Structure prediction request, 133 residues.
Amino acid sequence: MLSNTTQLRPHPEPFRPRAARLVLGSAHRFGRPDGAWWPRTRDLARELGELADVIDPLWGRLTHVAVNPRHWRLGPHGVVAVNGHEVAVDRFTEGLNPHRILLQSYTAGRWDLLVVPPLTSAPSAARLMAAVA
Prediction:
């Protein structure tokens, strides 16, 4: 009996997950963002995993996020699976800048990040992120 399977060859380089494009300020400043995040897409469920990979070790497990849904693709539910745990997603159209995301953890509180739109050019994104850092 002949098999129609294709032999898979190992990839020459090990797989490395992408890191979140993120800068954090040196100190919490009331009324100003605590950092800036440049996601690759507008799909919040997809992007939160990369963000949590960086945030969780620094601030504790991400438990809640709040976004203005104007610029995000969001599923119908208020919970997203992120790296093996659930993160509650709150949507606010009033009072939350559409270019911000609020992050919360049980251990370290709340942070406010500027969201650089995904299609922003690299030089423009670098300027925006440097202004926040």
Summary: The chain has a mean pLDDT of 85.
